Amino acid sequence: MLCELIIENVAVIEKASINFSEGFTCLTGETGAGKSIIIDSINAIMGERISKNIVRTGADKASIVAVFENLEQSIIDKALEMDIDLRDECIVSRQITAEGKSTARINAVPYPVSVLKTLFSDAINIHGQHDSQSLLTPSKHIGILDSFGTDSAIKATYGQLYKEYISIEKQIKELEEIDRDKRNTLDLLSFQVQEIEDAQLSAEEEQQLNNDKQLIKNAEHILSSLSDAYNYLFGDDDILGGLSALQEAAMSTEKVCSFAEVLSNISEKLNDAAAIAQDAGFELKSFMDDFDIDISDIDTIEERLDVYYRMKRKYGPEVEDVLAFYEESKKELEKIEFAREKLEKLYDKRKVITDKLSISAGRLTQNRKDVFDKLASEIQQSLVFLNMPDVKLYLSCEEKKYSSDGKDDIEFLISTNKGENAKPMAKIASGGELSRIMLAIKSVLAEKEDTHTLIFDEIDTGVSGSAAMKIGKLLKQTSAGKQVLCVTHSAQIAAFADNHLFIQKNTRDDSTYTSVTLLDETEREREVARIISGDNISQTALMNAREMISLAKNS
Questions:
Q1: Which value, in Å, is the radius of gyration of the alpha carbons in the chain?
Q2: Given 280, 310, 335, which residue is the final one in a domain?
Q3: Which of 309, 335, 361 is the endpoint of a domain?
Q4: DSSP assignment of 218-267, as one string?
Q5: Rounded Cα–Cα distance for residues 231 and 243 (Å)
Q6: Is residue 453 within 8 Å of 482, Cβ to Cβ?
Q7: What percent of the chain has a predicted confidence (pLDDT) above 90?
């Protein structure tokens, strides 16, 4: 419950301390006296945006402090989750400087303004002068219906399924984009991977092919050179071979080695050289004997090397680059193919979740239809009391795409007179009728919601006479066990208040000041009389006011 509101240097209010009580409190005063400033101040405590223009002319800053008691348990629990303890006391403040810097505190501890909105937006329900117009917006109607009594378990089940559905849809969309982008790439990659696989390339084979090519192209020269080398080693009819020469040199040296020790080493080296030369000669002979080159093989080798040339030109420049491109392409191909497989699985999963979502959404739709019957009945009862006995509410429930709140396109239709067809509220209801319909809705919802404090800002717009009296009585009834504040210009409504606050504007030293006064019984009678007859209060007006208050107390 809002217990106290302290306002300092806010617009025309220099300083005001307002105490609020349980039950029904009305706020009255002349137009422009500052009633809206009080509502704006409460909005500021609830974390709404606040302009630097509210700072009183000549002041450095504006300050608003609110004291709450016996907060709803849901707000206390939410605060504890944020490490804020509101169990013993709750003092909330907002300050804004003339330069526009805004600060917020809870129990003297600074917090971002967003924390105020998170915690206290549910502590007070403000019905502003223009909120009745929200009834003309069909998208608002589903919130009213759900607030009244839609099964939370059914909504929660649907909500969880919808989250899963959205998650799957997001994954499908991403993979379908990949699939579209990669469709042409897939064909190309498949061709490239297959082409390189078929080529069966290796750096070792390319090297061997080049070696074989050079061998075939130089076969005659190789054999001629090797033959000469063999002859130089073993000799022929015309020359003494190098091997024989080495052997002769070794024997000649061996004959005289007894004369010098070093000659033995020389002789040994010559013998070793002769043995090595002889082995080399045998290997030359073996190579030449086995050197069986078919010149026609050059065509096969050239064809195979041409494969390497084409692959390197397309994917190279070297064989290693071609093979690296092959591995990367194969990975990309597998990724695309895996995405397609995953997409197919997601399609199956979406079918399953859509079936479940459809069933859950159907249950939610039926529950809302059942709830509407009860809501419409209670609203119509309240409207009968508010002098609108012929009003009938109907539900238009069309199917829409799945959304976070179901698949129901909800709109309240209304018939205000007997025999009239139901139509959208924008086409039928007047301003006064909208005010009473919204009040009826608020009074019905008040019993369902945890919000302890309800504020009605000029709910009497477009209403007078007995209808206004009924509004006052309904506000009084709604305040049972709650705190109801009402800014009003109606004497009939003010007469039902448990507490009466008078907002008065005065001029002093060329400056304007607003004061807020809790009226006693006599002052209250004079204020109700002023509302009835204006500033010139007659005895008749006072008697009317006294009677009006008396009837309100006894009704």
A1: 50
A2: 335
A3: 335
A4: THHHHHHHHHHHHHHHH--SSS--HHHHHHHHHHHHHHTGGG-HHHHHHH
A5: 10
A6: yes
A7: 36
Nearest to 247 by CA among 259, 260, 258, 233: 233
For 63, the domain range is 1-123+452-555
| Amino acid at the residue 431 | G
Indicate whether 89 belongs to any domain. yes
* CATH of residue 542: 3.40.50.300
Is pLDDT at 237 greater than 80 in this prediction? no
63 and 189: one domain? no
Residue 477 lies inside a defined structural domain of this protein: yes
CA angle 248, 249, 251 (to 5 degrees): 65
Task: Work out the pLDDT band at 129, boundaries 50, 70, 90.
Answer: low
User: Taking the model in full, what pTM does it have?
Assistant: 0.63
The answer to whether the CB of 529 falls within 8 A of the CB of 492 is: no
How many domains is the chain built from? 2
Q: Per-residue pLDDT tens for 460-518?
A: 777 777 888 888 999 998 888 889 999 998 999 999 999 999 998 887 777 777 888 99
In this predicted structure, the answer to whether residue 133 has a pLDDT above a threshold of 70 is no
Confirm if 324 and 177 have CB atoms less than 8 A apart: no
Evaluate whether 128 touches 46 at the Cβ level (below 8 Å): no
Give me the pLDDT at residue 347, please.
93
